[in-house]
């Protein structure tokens, strides 16, 4: 037996001895966050990137089977290929444009396989999708035989179809979250980018754009290829669970596309012209009613994430892990919706499976809970992640309350711990303030002169306990804020 084959057998036996789920694949892995030369997941991949004349190649795995999004044209700078059998990526090769001439030319059988296998898979997937749509339409008898149009054709017509038509159509993924992959890609290719509405200062998250599809505004989040794991994570969460909720950012489509000889990863969602809560608070002073409305809508979204819904149309429990004012959007009705699920963790009680994902990116240091900064969080316990969301929610609540007018007085917007750490704090900066000195943001005294804001200040403090188990739950906060809302409602006049 060749030495290379012996090595692979040893790796397989070693990983099998450690144990992994029967329905998962064993893949070769050499990305930085792999502690072993193998990993387990639903899809194996190999990716290659060219930067400043240097070519780097990595192998690894993804926790969800989303092969359709792996089939994108290879460019001169980036390319990726996936496969779905154990250790299939150990010898899987990928060549960037212009690189093939330097390497060995593919043999005729391999060339034919490269051409016809993806084409055959695409045709089979298209046929299955069309068959499924046809069966659903027949069962429900919602449309006549002559008038019923296949959704994939509908999505590609340049007519008066709207996003609302697509999202409310009978033929969806079945999760209530998004459209079939082929329809998502069709929608994505018909979007025109109009203006850049946001960009991360670090550049790690890419850019946010306002786009137009058939006259309607949509938001397009463009990830850099370096942050492909975040894009994959958001795509798999939106496509596998029931996340349609007024206070969760509405998902439309996801696509991997090639533009200007570079690969772009697109996440297409509903567009909200008010922008993020961070931007909104910069320019808007709030009254008490608006303050309470923003706070209540955020916690409603967080409750929906945290709770597990059982049944065939259910969802696992989800912890956000990067809740902050920049990741919360303000809708036109001054309600909020939570965005950016790139770091989310999922958990199902039935299987007791904790899906952390493969993303090496960490959350925002300014919003990290004490147990995260001290590296004492129980990473095997889902409840631990929910408690970090509550800590961050308390900080967001503080940001909102500071911008609320009381007796004609309001402070300028400031981020949490603005008076204790630099504008771009390091991990050690935050660890000293939060863990060693055990500081929390200073609550303005003027809030205590108003009964509603005084109750919000009490909630903040109960979100900031050093001990995670002592913090409030999202459901308890939601119930408390509902009572406050009821107290603001004026009694109806007597007849």
Can you tell me about this structure?
- It is a single chain.
- It is built from 13 helices and 15 strands.
- It is α+β, with helices and mostly antiparallel strands.
- The chain folds into 3 domains: 7-100, CD59 (Ribbon), CATH 2.10.60.10; 164-271, 2-Layer Sandwich (Phosphorylase Kinase, domain 1); 277-488, Orthogonal Bundle (Transferase(Phosphotransferase), domain 1), CATH 1.10.510.
- Helix 8 runs antiparallel to helix 10 and helix 8 (288-306) packs antiparallel against helix 13 (474-488).
- Strand 14 (345-348) and strand 15 form a beta hairpin.
- Residues 3-7, 9-20, 141-161 and 169-176 have low confidence and may be disordered.
- 35% of the residues lie in helices and 18% in strands.
- Strands 6-7-8-10-9 form a 5-stranded antiparallel beta sheet. It has a 3-stranded antiparallel beta sheet with strand order 4-3-5, with no helix packed on it. A 3-stranded antiparallel beta sheet has the order 11-14-15.
Summarize this structure as a short list of keywords or feature phrases.
35% helix; Transferase(Phosphotransferase), domain 1; 15 strands; alpha+beta; 18% strand; disordered N terminus; three-stranded antiparallel beta sheet; 495 residues; five-stranded antiparallel beta sheet; Phosphorylase Kinase, domain 1; 3 domains; CD59
């Amino acid at each position: 037996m060749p030495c290379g084959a012996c090595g692979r057998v040893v790796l397989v036996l070693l990983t099998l001895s450690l144990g992994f789920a029967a329905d998962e694949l064993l893949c070769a892995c050499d990305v930085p966050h792999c502690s072993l030369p193998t990993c387990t997941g639903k899809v194996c991949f190999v990716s290659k990137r060219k930067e400043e004349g240097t070519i780097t190649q990595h192998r690894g795995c993804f926790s969800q089977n989303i092969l359709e999004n792996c089939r994108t044209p290879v460019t001169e700078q980036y390319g990726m290929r996936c496969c779905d059998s154990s250790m299939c990526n150990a010898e899987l090769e990928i060549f960037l444009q212009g690189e093939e001439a330097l390497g060995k030319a593919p043999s005729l059988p391999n060339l034919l396989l490269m051409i016809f296998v993806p084409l055959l898979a695409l045709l089979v997937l298209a046929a299955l999708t069309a068959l499924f749509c046809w069966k659903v339409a027949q069962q429900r008898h919602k449309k006549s035989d002559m008038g019923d149009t296949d959704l994939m054709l509908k999505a590609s017509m340049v007519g008066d179809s709207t996003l609302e038509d697509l999202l409310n159509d009978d033929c969806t993924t079945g999760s209530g979250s998004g459209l079939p992959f082929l329809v998502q890609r069709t929608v994505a290719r018909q979007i025109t980018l109009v203006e850049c509405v946001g960009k991360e200062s670090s550049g790690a998250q890419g850019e946010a754009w306002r786009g137009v599809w058939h006259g309607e505004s949509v938001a397009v989040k463009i990830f850099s290829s370096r942050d492909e794991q975040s894009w994959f994570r958001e795509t798999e969460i939106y496509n596998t669970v029931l996340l349609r909720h007024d206070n969760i950012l509405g998902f439309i489509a996801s696509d991997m596309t090639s533009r200007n000889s570079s690969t772009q990863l697109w996440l297409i969602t509903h567009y909200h012209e008010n922008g993020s809560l961070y931007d909104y608070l910069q320019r808007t002073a709030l009254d008490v009613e608006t303050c309470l409305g923003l706070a209540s809508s955020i916690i409603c979204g967080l409750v929906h994430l945290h709770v597990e819904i059982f049944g065939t149309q259910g969802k696992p429990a989800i912890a956000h892990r990067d809740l902050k004012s920049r990741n919360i959007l303000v809708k036109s009705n001054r309600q909020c919706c939570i965005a950016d699920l790139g770091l989310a963790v999922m958990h199902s009680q039935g299987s007791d499976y904790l899906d952390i994902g493969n993303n090496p990116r960490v959350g925002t240091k300014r919003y990290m809970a004490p147990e995260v900064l001290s590296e004492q969080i129980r990473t095997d316990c889902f409840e631990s992640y929910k408690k970090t969301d509550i800590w961050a929610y308390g900080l967001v609540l503080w940001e909102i309350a500071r911008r609320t007018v009381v007796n004609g007085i309001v402070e300028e917007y400031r981020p949490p711990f603005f008076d204790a750490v630099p504008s771009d704090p390091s991990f050690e900066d935050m660890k000293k303030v939060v863990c060693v000195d055990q500081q929390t943001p200073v609550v303005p005294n003027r809030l205590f002169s108003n009964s509603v804001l005084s109750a919000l200040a009490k909630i903040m403090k109960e979100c900031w306990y050093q001990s995670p188990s002592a913090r409030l739950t999202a459901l308890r906060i939601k119930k408390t804020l509902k009572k406050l809302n009821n107290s603001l409602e004026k009694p109806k006049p007597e007849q």
